[in-house]
């Protein structure tokens, strides 16, 4: 049985793909989208990074874009990421990089995607900056894992990826990637996936999430835990305390514009906290996933539409 929160998320992800809903969101949602997005330009994002760094919060910077239709679009994103990496280095801010494989051409040409991403990773390696390859929906799961392990085998080890707890396959993927030395961000999962490959109940997703977090911490591998769930955060804190794990053994990650006070509070408590900060003009897909997370986010938009 699917609980209310999961039903809301599935409905939102379904209707957000309709053209009328997209038109309304683009008309009324842009101002509200700024809550979740640092700005449309790199300079906007770099300024926001400096503000967060001053509060003890690290950043992973994402230039928005996914689902491209032509490889020249991918080349444009590649060039922007190279500029982004150079901008982080020049400003000497505490930030790494996140990018999506489909914005680099994965759905069109796998080899072109690899060349685009490897160019960004090599540029980042020259500045000692880490690159995270975001995990998208299930058609790209294995291809993303293969891409990251290939980068490692080619000597580019300043790159990692993401695993999603709601997929049945994830524990096996975590074991495989841990052996390969690939650094992971652990998440619950944000896409609509069928019951044949993914847990549908929130309780099952949470149980899976805890299993992969526990495995990662028990292996002594630095662990990035991306969640806004206080139950998970407190469970991680207690697990680390009981097992005498230092606060430097893991980091929490949260999204830009959400729970800002809690992010600052974790930093003050001595925990490592990283903010996922997107910027750019292609905000709609990212924005709809944020709306799908909880009804309160949608209410903000509805109130704005009637003002």
UniProtKB/TrEMBL annotation:
UniProt cofactor note: Binds 1 FAD per subunit.
Residues noted as binding substrate in the record, renumbered to the chain: 100, 289-290
Record organism: Paenibacillus radicis
Flavoprotein among keywords: yes
First and last residue of the signal peptide: none
Its EC number(s): 1.5.5.2
GO biological process: L-proline catabolic process to L-glutamate
Domain named Proline dehydrogenase: residues: 45-297
Species classification: Bacteria, Bacillati, Bacillota, Bacilli, Bacillales
Keyword entries, A-Z: FAD, Flavoprotein, Nucleotide-binding, Oxidoreductase, Proline metabolism
Co-factor(s): FAD
Designated name of the protein: proline dehydrogenase
Catalytic activity reported: L-proline + a quinone = (S)-1-pyrroline-5-carboxylate + a quinol + H(+)
Entries under InterPro entries matching the protein: FAD-linked_oxidoreductase-like, PRODH_bac_arc, Proline_DH_dom, Proline_oxidase
Molecular function GO terms recorded: nucleotide binding; proline dehydrogenase activity
